[in-house]
Amino acid sequence: MNRKDANLDAMLRYLGAAYYDSLQGKAAPADVTRALDSVAEYVGVNHHGLGHSRVRDVMTTSVVTVGRMAPYKEIVGLLAEHKISGVPVLTMDRHVAGVVSEGDLLAARGKRPPARRWQLPSWRQRHRGNTAEELMTSPAITVQPDATIAAAARLMNAHRVRRLPVVDSGGVLAGIVSRRDLLSVFLRPDPQIARQVGEILTELLPGGPTGIVVSVRNGVVALTGGPELAAEEDLIPVAVRLAWDVDGVVDVVDKTGPAAVGHTAGR
């Protein structure tokens, strides 16, 4: 065994141990993730590599924005003109101060206090909620360009927002990503997905993917058969985990080996 193979063997043993310990509750998911990332990077699979989209790959760089003093009616006009549901609010140095959405605009009108018949509303009452600074939701939920599609989706889901301003390391607006942008990765053709999953198996399994059949239909990856070497069986869960990270994958069904038939693996 040469030095490279010895290093890979040691890393795979560590990964196997971390995975086993996580099943026993003796290791955190982060430990498995670190070990998995180390193996993936060493063999040149996935991680920041083949076909793995980031937010920068799907975001829109031409962003409709407003300043903090933009009036209510101007914001409504921009949303209607560009057929969008919200706009980032920028400071003078293009940092994102907040986001004004359709919901923010409607909520402001709903909260407006009615004027009494015998008393004219004050200037403050008449202009309350009339500028982007007063209307916006702040601080804005943002994401960085190198974030994964999955991470951006989790942010949207957790905060129940439809779009995320994309900011660079200095907090300056770089683009915007919407739910539709994130879903675009699932338009990837099945043959491309199958080819990449096959490449993962080739790189990960010392004996190669011989004996394992990869099929993809409507984004669902099915792995059937089994590895040629018995020692590689412990690496199948790793292959499944890596397959989940391939762009366009909707689900991964692991049917390798007699014990795995009918088992569907999740993220």
How is this structure best described in words?
The chain is of the alpha/beta class and 267 residues long. The chain folds into 3 domains: 1-43, no CATH class; 55-112 and 124-185, Roll (CBS-domain); 188-262, GMP Synthetase, Chain A, domain 3 (2-Layer Sandwich), CATH 3.30.300. 41% of the residues lie in helices and 17% in strands. The protein has 11 helices and 9 strands. The strands form 3 sheets. It has a 4-stranded mixed sheet. It starts with a helix and ends with a strand. 29% of the residues are buried. Residues 44-50, 123-127 and 259-267 have low confidence and may be disordered.
Describe how the helices and strands are arranged.
Blueprint lengths: L2 H21 L5 H15 L11 H4 L7 E2 L4 H11 L3 E5 L5 E6 H10 L11 H5 L4 H4 L13 H11 L3 E5 L5 E6 H5 L6 H15 L7 E6 L2 E6 L10 H9 L6 E6 L6 E3 L2
Helix pairs in contact: 1-2
Main β sheet profile: 4 strands, mixed
Report the strand count. Answer: 9
Cα shape: elongated
The CATH superfamily of the largest domain appears as CBS-domain
Class from secondary-structure proportions: alpha/beta
Beta-strand level of the residues, as a percent range? 15-25%
CATH fold-level label of the largest domain: CBS-domain
CATH architecture assignment of the largest domain:
Roll
Task: Report the uncertain regions.
Answer: 44-50, 123-127, 259-267
**Oligomeric state:** single chain
Q: Give the termini separation.
A: 34 Å
Order of helices and strands: HHHEHEEHHHHEEHHEEHEE
